[in-house]
Write the structure tokens for this entry.
Amino acid sequence: MAAQKFSILRHDSYKRMPWKNGGGETVEIAVSPEGAGLADFDWRVSMATVATDGPFSVFSSIDRTLSILEGAGMTLFIEGREPVLLTQESTPLPFAADAPTSATLVDGAITDLNVMTRRGRLSHSVRRVRVDGSDELALGSETALVLCHRGHLDIGDRTLLAGDCLLVEEAAGTQHSISGMAQLFVIELHEV
């Protein structure tokens, strides 16, 4: 079994770039392979501020999951599905990034967390975890990211502040002692 590798990604080091459709700005937390662009990534984790109603960028052969980080929420209109209201309390929503999709804001701008994987190569899962004190965090995939959305978290001897992310490689089947007061998003990436 290979040794685990931990990389702390600090919120002030994330890469800012325009949306694929030019309609806003995205903040890239992590991408693989490193340095990949929007056309050739295997996986990508980013945040975006959505300030107006409108269409989403279309990504061919990509699956995505959206979660609301800030704001009142938005209603998503995904081709072939009933409209979905997504709020900060909603379960992260998976859908095909190549399905034509548009959004209507509920009450002003929102910030979302966007996880994308290339269909046929990888799949992913996203779960929201609240931490209040000490606990154990189980990771079931080879590659996992732990985003500290609010508060602070100690995971082993590493500290994450609000906005920071921990990238864990060779993570499958591992348990991690965690403590703090935080809201986390745990992203697990699975090879197909």
